[in-house]
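agent> Task received from the user: take the single chain below, predict its 3D structure, and emit structure tokens. No templates, no multimer pairing.
agent> Plan: (1) validate residues, (2) run structure prediction, (3) serialize to tokens, (4) report one or two observations.
agent> Step 1 OK, no nonstandard residues flagged.
tool_call: predict_structure(input=
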Amino acid sequence: MNRVMLLYPPGKLLQRSEDRAQCNVSESAANSVHACNDLGYCAAVLLEKGYEVFLRDYQTEGAPFDDVLSDINSFKPDMIALSTTNTSVRDDIDFINKINKSYKCVSVMKGAVFYDIDLKLLEQLDLSNVSCLIGCEMEFVIGTLADFYLKNEGKLDAVNGIIYKQDGKFNKGPFVCGLNDLNKLPFPARQLMNNSLYVRPDTGEPMATIQTGLGCPSNCIYCLTPVISGKKVRKRDVESVYGEIEECFNKYGIRNFFFKADTFTIDSDYANAVCDRIINSPIHGKIEFTVNSRVKPLELSLLKKLKQAGCFTIAVGFESGSDETLKRIKKGATVEDNLKAAKMIKEAKIPLFGFFMLGFPWEDREMIKQTKRLIHKINPDFIEVHVAMPYYGTGLYEECEKLGVLCDSGFGHDYYSPNTVGTVALSSKQVEKLKRKILLGFYLRPNYIAKKMLGAIKQPNIMRNYIRYGFNLLKKNL
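)
tool_result: status=success, residues=478
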């Protein structure tokens, strides 16, 4: 009893490694799947404890269900653990139930959808073949779960962040966020991961995810981060971060990175220290990376340091062009702050990926038009526009419930198909139509297309990817 199978099930491309965004990549025109670091961390922990581990990302491979059955029959796992999302939770449960028709073993599911969830909501799901639900950082509990289920060691009642089955009923353990020390984790077991699956969107080159921190002190009502990861920012030691980058570069030939943090720039001293470590290393000029940032705090000096260290793009959640909406979602920024941040990023000459949201329950057509105007004022290099999704456990969920626009608990929904009927002023179809018009109006501008094509004319792989993303955009929005 020592074999553990870690997987992403076949199906839509989803950002299963994320607790915050859980992006539906299949519906996006400009996003790509991030590496399965959650599985990689779990594999590394289990390997250190002496377990045999099999890891495969079936969804990103585009592999069929028959491949899963073949691997199960070959590996014969004692426990299967998978990552799920709000979008896929019902499909993933069906996947486990389908497996159990021919193969019985312990089944564990991890997903932000289960964080401190009301047990009554679980009655909507057929969890008859699931032993345990993990609602927080999977890598910190997977070893304890394996010891309990496979070696009959320890107890589960005090394990943080899980819901476990006992005598046929689910019981909650404690749910306390922000407890885990990231520096105690081994590097993800990339020797078991198919690293070629995870690519930089523009060049198509392999891109590794490096976890630099977790947690966010902000109060945005739509975001799960403070709920799940905590409001205290937990940072990995700079040397640990650099050591993992160096291992990826030297051992796996990876030169592109996503520095995963809920907001990398929130602690400028730390971000500067990471940049300085890269700049003063043998791999400076040989690697590039992308980061997430908030509008505030943000400093021009840090942005210039990021550019010097190799930052090839920065993603910022501007969210709205309506000051009223920014205030009500507790963004901690104004439209003027959005414009100021965008100006600094452009001054630092870092390509900008802007994220925007519309369809908050109080919004009307004019507020959404304000967001459209902001997008064109900022004029980012790339944008993604989401319809506000009220995840269970967020302030937005409560606000939607109060205003009467919530249609169900959220299982099976995401930014591309939220669990609302629209806003108090607009139907969901009207909101979706406005979103499509904003996306197409931005990307189909002749001067935008010409600029991107001219910039990529000497780089055929980038040109090819731009064209592919363009076709995806048209396919999903026309």
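agent> Step 4: summary for the user.
The first strand starts at residue 3 and ends at 8.
agent> Done.
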